[in-house]
Amino acid sequence: MRIIIDAMGGDNAPQAPVEAGCKASNELDVDIVFVGKEEILVKELNKYSYNKERVSIVNAEDVITNHEEPAKAVRSKKNSSIVVAANMLKNNEGDALLSMGNTGALLASGLLIVGRIKGVLRPALATLLPSAKGPKMLIDAGANTNCKSENLVQFAIMGSIYMKNVMGIASPTVGLMSNGEEEGKGDELTKETFPHLKNAPINFIGNIEGRDVMEGTADVVTCDGFVGNVILKTVEGMGSVVGNMVKDMFTKNISSKIGALFVMKSINAFKQSMDYREYGGAPLLGTKKPIIKGHGSSDAKAVYSAIKQAKKFVETNIIDEIIKNVSNMEEKSND
Amino acid sequence: MRIIIDAMGGDNAPQAPVEAGCKASNELDVDIVFVGKEEILVKELNKYSYNKERVSIVNAEDVITNHEEPAKAVRSKKNSSIVVAANMLKNNEGDALLSMGNTGALLASGLLIVGRIKGVLRPALATLLPSAKGPKMLIDAGANTNCKSENLVQFAIMGSIYMKNVMGIASPTVGLMSNGEEEGKGDELTKETFPHLKNAPINFIGNIEGRDVMEGTADVVTCDGFVGNVILKTVEGMGSVVGNMVKDMFTKNISSKIGALFVMKSINAFKQSMDYREYGGAPLLGTKKPIIKGHGSSDAKAVYSAIKQAKKFVETNIIDEIIKNVSNMEEKSND
């Protein structure tokens, strides 16, 4: 198996992707292709031990930054690391693609270069969020701002397949994000979607509310990408603010620093349970081949988790199962 | 000044509202009218010291529970505490109304009985949320599931007036909740709303994202009630889950319990900064007279904060200022 890594994307590129990829080449029984400026990558590679038979570099002169308009950048920057990597994936020069770079550009590359699975109206970004009951999936977490009910139903199906295969949950529960639990609650989109989810080949448990995200009420939370983006960023923002507050709590004065020594183990367990790095990246579900978006601020540890996740994405039969489950849904024009 | 309290609403009724109202009668220079089952309230009142010249009871035989369909219940249960209280407010038998009961029933009573300010298309529920920079307002937090851009503009104006008068912020900043900071980002509603907010008599700072809620980027966060409800409940759910985790952290074993002793002061400061009870309730903005929704789980301390808040709502000229600012906006049919 060969994993293509956009080595230029993310706040800690190229260090984090290269360090993690080298480690993976030694430990994970995968080949790694780094895509990016060769000169820079050769220099970076020299810092780490890696399996020389399993690591290669493909040169890409350009980089799409976070400030560029995604679709336009993908169309114009043919030699950017993301575009080169996506073309390699399309041409079967690798089995999965991982990038920590511009989210929109990765989505556009998935859609325009790698392509949708036949029958999938819109691929969706699926994020794993920490909860009181372990990691749960939020889909769509931001790929599709405006959605129709058919989209949400497909998100729910694809999310269920992923959680079953990658997280090992036999029959993942699916909740529809709404502003009330009762069936009649919701906006136009969720009210229209509810009966379709009831009839879909999933374990639908009905409407859920914002508090259910962290409580872990459903294994898969489905919503449009606008709401999903707001939830994801609200949770991230709160995590960061509360994290700082807890840190302040233990560094305020001598007394609290002594206190910290006694609860160090608990603090670390708490931090770990809230650590997005444990869960890898966000898979893009609905494209013909596996694509994973790593968090922009990923360090080497987070990239390594995402590589393991990409491997599992390839090994399990997620894409085949998505093909099987959506092929019986009539494809409709949805632009 | 006379504050009408629905003494039957909320998880801790009648104890919490009665205890808080009694304290307010002694300390706040306000008259308190408790509305509810007289027999029960007389018994509860006997448990506390209160100012006999300032406290009275108005009998209401019925209660609208949290499980009833709000608009229907308000229409059919004429003798429920919320409906009796709303009619008293309408008939100038009090200056403000506070309820910890069924949110939908309170909103319906505000709309159907107390009535909208002329020119206000839709009253909105405005919640104060904790942030890294102190309490910030989320409006609409759930009163209006489907909104138009005119609604959001009015929410922003009313929210700004409230934050100026009650929180003492000279020129409150307003952010439009979206899925990206750039002007072009958003769904149909936010894209349409953006230019109108630019021209509104407010301190508009543009689009904001979910993470800005907790970071406190804007004093007023405006959005439709569906998104607002999702944000509010996501934050509440996360607060409760993280709170339990922090608690577990300090009660796990002997070592962590000793540690807790050293950081007790910091823990309490942390809890206080995250404590909704400090901020009172959620004002309903846009009705002819002040209405405040206290949190359903309010204890006496939270109800007392909400009474102080109701007093400030009456004392400052919020309603006059809303009348002045929306009277020059043409009233449009909006149902």
Explain what this protein looks like in three dimensions.
The structure is a homodimer of 335-residue chains. The first copy, chain A, has 12 helices and 11 strands. In chain A, strand 7, helix 7 (188-199) and strand 8 (203-208) form a beta-alpha-beta unit. With 335 residues, chain A is α/β, with parallel strands linked by helices. Chain A is globular. The longest helix of chain A has 27 residues, at 225-251. An 11-stranded mixed sheet of chain A has the order 3-2-1-4-11-10-5-6-9-7-8, with helices on both faces. In chain A, helix 4 (81-90) packs parallel to helix 5. At the A-B interface, helix 8, helix 9 and helix 10 of A face helix 8, helix 9 and helix 10 of B.
Order of strands in the sheet with the most strands of chain A? 3-2-1-4-11-10-5-6-9-7-8
Mean pLDDT of chain A: 92
Tell me the total number of β-strands of chain A. Answer: 11
Distance between the first and last residues' Cα of chain A: 35 Å
Helix content of chain A: 40-55%
The oligomeric state of the chains shown is homodimer
> Uncertain segments of chain A of ≥5 residues (pLDDT<50)?
331-335
Structural class call of chain A reads: alpha/beta
Report the β-strand fraction of chain A as a percent range: 15-25%
Q: Give the number of helices of chain A.
A: 12
Q: Outline of chain A, from the CA principal axes?
A: globular
Radius of gyration of chain A: 20 Å
Kindly report the greatest chain-chain contact and the residue count on each side.
A-B, 59 and 59 residues
The biggest beta sheet of chain A reads:
11 strands, mixed
Order of helices and strands of chain A: EHEHEHHEHEEHEHEHEHHEEHH
